[in-house]
Amino acid sequence: MKYERFEQEPLDRAIIRIAEAYGFNVPPVALTRKALQEDLELDHNARATAALVRAEPAAKKTTLRWGATRRGSGTTLAFAVLSSRHAISHAIVVKTAASILERAGYSELVVGVSSIGDHESRRRFTRELGTFFKKHGTAVPPEIAKRAHTDPEGAYRDLLAAGGELVERLPKPIDHLSEQSRKTMVDTLHLFESVGIEYSLEPHLPAARGVHAELLFAISAVGPNGSRVIAATGGRLDELAKKTGITGPGHSVGLALTVDDVIDPERPAGDVSCFVIHVGDAAKLKSFALLDSLWQANVAVRNALLADSLREQMEEARRLGAKYIAIIGQREAIDNTVIIRNVETGAQHAVPRERIAATLARR
Questions:
Q1: 357-361 LR contacts (CB < 8 Å, sep 24+)
Q2: Which whole number is the average pLDDT over 278-300?
Q3: Looking at residue 362, what is its pLDDT?
Q4: What are the structural domains of the chain?
């Protein structure tokens, strides 16, 4: 089993280690029941994500934030990257959620990706929905057909939830994307390929009104009971972020999932063994791929993938008291090597990237 080395590690401890490895270095926000009741018309994951975005003062710079709330005997976790200019923020929230699901006993994970596009794309899609409901009105359940007159997108979501043969005839949002929205989706798919995230195009992922914009994500997986389920959902949160006063120049993205365990948000993960630093875009992608092997090797790893400068990364490594710094520059990205620097002695040497986890684990 992939994670058998962690059989004795409590799930909440593993979740905190994973969250910190991908940059969520602060304790999770406690998402209150009152906060989740603000959007009762939405599904649980969308409500948790919206509550997380609204939970703290507005972000004016790139912020990684996560939250937790009890759900029955388990815990719902929400992750968000706010005001990021870097497309890798999409991969950060998706990979964090996927790693937690795998650690919680889920397998055969596939990330579904879709897009509802920008305002122009949605206008195109709404017009196409109007045509569809006029053409197939007699085949649509009466209550959905009635809603279609005033709320085509709501009727579309209702028809998706109802299922049936008619769903296959529904127009697809991704077929009506503007040029810019199509580029956003294609760039994200290329990013996922670059960092090893397995994905599939899902033409009919439902968007939560007032929460999701542009890209949509859904992680399907085989659960511990052997059945395939949708284990995590989310997407871009640009419009919601703006409404809550988040004024940074970039985009925002979030994802939520539920695990069958109670997570202790105050439990620290411990000292930082290694801080991963990148220099350049190619090195950023290599650094991201390195994080998975390091946390699986039980290395307490941190990063600043969304930092804009080498200086900012070095300052964060010093602040956290990292014992080692793993540096990937342009040359290392090409050679598939990593420079390991001992912070105390200043000694450093290059190590093949596939051996870095074992090297740091021994130390």
A1: 357/293, 357/294, 357/296, 357/297, 357/299, 358/297, 360/273, 360/274, 360/294, 360/297, 360/299, 360/324, 360/326, 361/297, 361/298, 361/299
A2: 92
A3: 79
A4: 4-117+178-259 (3.30.930.10), 119-176 (no CATH), 274-362 (3.40.50.800)
